[in-house]
Every structure is written in C-alpha cells, then in structure tokens.
Amino acid sequence: MDIHIKQGLIQQEESDLIVVNLFQGETVPAGALKAVDQALDGLISTMLEAGDFKGKLGDTHLFYSRGVLPAPRVLVVGLGPQEEFGLEQARRAAAAAARRARELGIAQYSTIVHGGGVAGLDAARAAQAVVEGSLLGLYRFMSHKRDAAQEEAGGPAAVTVVEVDAAKMDAVREGARVGQVAAGMANLARDLINEPGNYLTPRELARRLRAEAEQIGVQAEVLGEEELAALGAGSFLAVAQGSEEEAQFIILEHRPQGVEGGDLPTVVLVGKAITFDTGGISIKPAEAMWQMKDDMGGGAAVAGAVLAAARLNLPVHAVALIPSCDNMPSGKALKPGDVVRAMNGKTVEIISTDAEGRQVLADALCYAARYDPVAVVDVATLTGSIGLALGRQVAGVFCDDADLRDRLLKASELAGEALWPMPLHKPYRKLIDTDVADMKNSGGRYGGAIIGALFLQEFAEGYPWAHLDIASTVWQEENSAFAVRGGTGFSTRLLLELLRSYA
Ligand code: BES
Ligand code: MN
Ligand code: ZN
C-alpha cells in the first residue's frame, strides 16, 4: 500500500473514504470530527446522543456523506478512553480503520493522525504509529493460497495521511516514513516466519535476505559449512550435521552512506534461525511440531531491523548475524552425550539435542566480538519456559548492562512490543556443570529460560550483551488488533527503535 502525506482539512479530501476519530465517552464532537459533523448536519452528534457508538478502541461506524462532502464515506473510529491513549492505541485504531476499508473494497482512503492533537504526544511518533498500524493491520500471508491474487487485489492501494497543522508537516512526513519502513520490515519478518520449512530452507533464507539486502544497499555475506568449520564453529555445525540442508551463517551489514564511518557505534544483532526444529534425536512430540517452522523468528527480526536501519540510512553501524540450519534426527545427527567445541574453545556436553538454539547462538556470539561492538543483542525462540513465566504477549530480556537494558525497555515501550527483565541469576550457573565438559546444554525444567540465558552468557564475552527470549511471542494463536494468526515478527520494530537510539 502506498502512503501519501498531505497538509489540509480531512473534510475537504477527495477520497473513497475519510477516517476521523472519537475518544470513548466524548459526547460533543471536537476538532476534525466537529467539522465533519457540521457538514453532515449533526448526524454524528445524533449518533452520540443516541448512545449508539461508544468510541471503544477499534470500534468503527460508517456514514455516507450523500454529496455534502467530497468523500462519499466517513468512518469514525474509536480511540478508547483519553486517559489510556498512547502510541499503541493509535496503531490499533489505524489498523481497525484499514481493515474496515479493506472489507469495504475501497481503493484509496484518507485518515487524520490519531493522537496528532493530543498534548504530550509527539507528532512524528503519532504519524509513525498510524502508518504502522495500517500496514500491520492489513497483513495477510497468502503465498500458498490459490485465490491469493483476487484477495490481494481487495486491499486498499493507497492511504493519505492528512495533517491540518502546517508546522507539523515535517514531523508527520518523517514519522510516516519511519512507520512505513518499520511495518514493512515487520511484515517481511512475518512472511519469513509463516513460510513453511520445505520452502524456507537455510539456503532459501539466505537467498531472500541477500536479495533484500542488494535492493537496499546492505552488504550481505553468507558463510557455508566449510567456512564455518575453518572458523571452529563446532557448536553450530553440530546442530546442522543431522540435516541434508547445508547450514548458512548470514551476515548483513549496514554502513550509513554519506557519513564518516570511523567513529560510528557498532551494534550487532544476533538472531536464531532454525528453519525447522524437530528437536533432533531428542525429538519433540508430534502435536505442535509443525509450528516449529517459527524457530527462525529471531533471525527474521534481526534481519528486518538491520534492513530497516539501512532503508532509513541511520547513522549507526548495524550488523545482523543469523546462524541458520535445520535441527533434524538422522544417522548423522548429533546425539545426547556428545561433546562439541565452540569458536571460543569452550566445550559443551549435549544433554538434549532439542536445546539447539543455544548451540548455534554460542558460535554467533563468539563471532560478534570481532566487530568491537558497543552492544550485542541476541534474539531467539529459545525456551518454552519463557512462555510459562511471561505468557504470550511479553518477551523476556536478560541483561546486566544498565544502559543497554534501559535502551531496550524504552524501545519496547515505543514499539508496543512488551519486554520484561529476567535475572541472569549466577547461582543457577552450577545447574549446567558437568563432569565431562565446560558445561552441558540443559539444566532441567525449573528456570529453563534463565539457564538458557546463562549458557549464552558463556559466549558473550567482551561486550555489553542482552538476550531476548521471544519463544512465546513470535507466534499468535488469535487474530487481534493488528496481529493475524501466525508469525508476529515480534521485536523487529523494537530492535529498529534500539538502533535509532544509537543513531
Ligand atoms: N525452539 C524451541 C523453543 C520453543 C518452544 C519455541 C516452544 C517456541 C515454542 C527450543 O529449541 C527448545 O526446544 N527448547 C527446549 C530447551 C530444553 C531442551 C533445554 C525447551 O524449551 O524445552
Ligand atoms: Mn529445540
Ligand atoms: Zn529451537
């Protein structure tokens, strides 16, 4: 969908549909709504007096203007209570309007900036939220549907964001641009997550990311198994050895154009990209195994964030490291009891071949040190345990560096992607002690997410580091404001906000 920005009055827009809004409990139309109400000879006031529309967040009501306005249709969208309103509410309202426009089969519509007039809300941020909500809300995964072509054609081709205040135009334009890039990359991550494992092999993931990178001018490098062996990435290769598909270590690097490169901060994002996790010899139960095509969600998110940083030409040196392979059982597969050696020389006894995420991340975290980064953040669908602790909407952040943790929590707030701090509780380190190697890869059921993080910490040496466990947030079971069942792309937008904080 194309995004246009325009200064003017929404009631004067020549569109198939104009979108205005209303706070919950508001009984007298104000602002743009008032102007539209007057043009409609009080029709909106009548509805409010009758109590037929409460302004609940995401509720919509459609009017026909019957020639009194240039636009034939007016959509009022509820913003919820004013005291609860923020960027996330603007996103949700915009998503609801976009979905309604799609249902109506509308080709082009215009919207005001929800929250644009709210005191304390940044105009750029509000415009970003409106564009993000619209694009995220319209997302569908149709690649394998026979009727995809027709259904795709049903969505609106363009939206015009209309701002009345000339002084805010630069902010609105900039915010809309960021929102378009952020949501576009989150949707790319969703596509990659939803793509079945027989299509999205490690090589195919590398091919697609390389193609995206080339288009944007991001440097892409892909290491295969031979190069990984030369690097001593024994932990990563051990996971890959059971599969017919070759492991790929995908490296995306954004160096800003037109900026002196010398003293820019380097931020490395590491993303787990197991294109399918059967559990290996420690095989998973059959019921929900199909969903393990989402086990590359961390890789998708870090790729999306770095590609977005490049699209915005952020003055930061941003690197995505994406170790990718399948985790399969076979006659060549890694076995419980085996010992493997990571790039930093540390040895690991394999207790469960299903704890493969930490094995591939171990080598990638070692590799990250070569960039001399100001921060490294790994993102992984690492443990089922994080879902037991935090549920399906909140991801865990493990970080002992106060500055990096604060940046991540701020980014989380701005993106509306919830994070909660989890402890790197040192005494639990002994739970992965073993007689035969430097550590083992599983320490039992209790505190599983913390143990996974403590394992990774062994390889995150020499730089400030954070680990995000997104195992329970990468996938949603239910449709909601702007999620559709399936991959969420969780953390793509949050990571972009993190990169912006360094820019
Ligand atoms: N990819 C899984 C984690 C996961 C579970 C993601 C559920 C999404 C939904 C990971 O590789 C895994 O299997 N983790 C094990 C670790 C254990 C063997 C130490 C787990 O959480 O059970
Ligand atoms: Mn696993
Ligand atoms: Zn996994």
Provide the descriptors you would attach to this structure in a database record:
single chain, 503 residues, alpha/beta, 9-stranded mixed sheet, 6-stranded mixed sheet, 15 helices, 20 strands, 36% helix, elongated, binds ligand BES, binds manganese (II) ion, binds zinc ion
Largest sheet: 9 strands, mixed
**How large a portion of the residues is in β-strands, by DSSP E?**
15-25%
Radius of gyration: 24 Å
From the structure provided, what is the oligomeric state, counting identical versus distinct chains?
A: single chain
Helix/sheet category: alpha/beta
Counted beta strands:
20
Topology of helices and strands:
Blueprint: E1 2-7, E2 18-22, H1 31-39, H2 43-50, E3 60-64, E4 73-78, H3 87-103, E5 108-112, H4 123-137, H5 148-153, E6 158-163, H6 169-194, H7 202-216, E7 219-223, H8 225-231, H9 234-240, E8 248-254, E9 266-271, E10 273-277, H10 297-311, E11 317-327, E12 339-341, E13 347-349, H11 356-368, E14 375-380, H12 385-390, E15 394-399, H13 402-415, E16 418-422, E17 439-440, H14 448-457, E18 465-469, E19 475-476, E20 486-487, H15 492-502
Parallel strand pairs: 1-6, 2-4, 2-5, 5-6, 9-11, 9-14, 10-11, 13-17, 14-18, 15-16
Antiparallel strand pairs: 3-4, 7-8, 8-11, 12-13, 15-18, 19-20
Helix pairs in contact: 3-4, 4-6, 6-10, 7-10, 9-11, 10-15, 11-14, 13-15
The chain binds ligand BES, manganese (II) ion and zinc ion.
Description:
Strands 7, 8, 9, 10, 11, 14, 15, 16 and 18 form a nine-stranded mixed sheet that branches. The protein contains 15 helices and 20 strands. A hairpin with a 5-residue loop joins strand 12 (339-341) and strand 13 (347-349). The mean pLDDT is 96. The protein is of the alpha/beta class. The radius of gyration is 24 Å and the shape is elongated. It has helices spanning 31-39, 43-50, 87-103, 123-137, 148-153, 169-194, 202-216, 225-231, 234-240, 297-311, 356-368, 385-390, 402-415, 448-457, 492-502, and strands at 2-7, 18-22, 60-64, 73-78, 108-112, 158-163, 219-223, 248-254, 266-271, 273-277, 317-327, 339-341, 347-349, 375-380, 394-399, 418-422, 439-440, 465-469, 475-476, 486-487. The two termini are 28 Å apart. Bound molecules: ligand BES, manganese (II) ion (MN) and zinc ion. Manganese (II) ion binds at residues 277, 279, 354, 356.
